[in-house]
Specification:
This protein is mostly helical and about 90 residues long. It has one domain. The chain contains 3 helices and no strands. Helix 1 runs antiparallel to helix 2. The mean pLDDT is about 85.
């Protein structure tokens, strides 16, 4: 593998870890409690909970991809096959 490609992959892996750290912050943030009688507040809580769920799912997906790429770099093999759907493509389909 070319050194430039390996270097860029390592930079992407580092960026992936930083992205996961940010998603962990989102997932760990406290959901503000509102008055139970307020329908708008209930909808906001539901939206916040959904955002946390997506953050957790995205973090796990990124970590899985990082793991595959690190294994690829260690073994010296080429990256994902063309059959693999990219992270952005999978998110766009949802």
């Amino acid at each position: 593998m070319h050194d430039k490609v390996r270097d860029r992959k390592n930079k992407l892996i580092d960026a992936g870890y930083k992205a996961v750290d940010e998603l962990i912050k989102v997932a760990g943030a406290k959901i503000i409690k509102f008055d139970n009688d307020d329908d708008l507040a209930a909808e906001k809580m539901k939206t916040a909970a959904q955002a946390k769920k997506i953050a957790i799912e995205d973090a796990f997906e990124i970590l899985s991809r990082i793991q595959r790429e690190e294994e690829s770099l260690e073994s010296g093999s080429s990256s994902e096959s063309n059959k693999e759907v990219s992270f952005a493509e999978s998110r766009a389909r949802k």
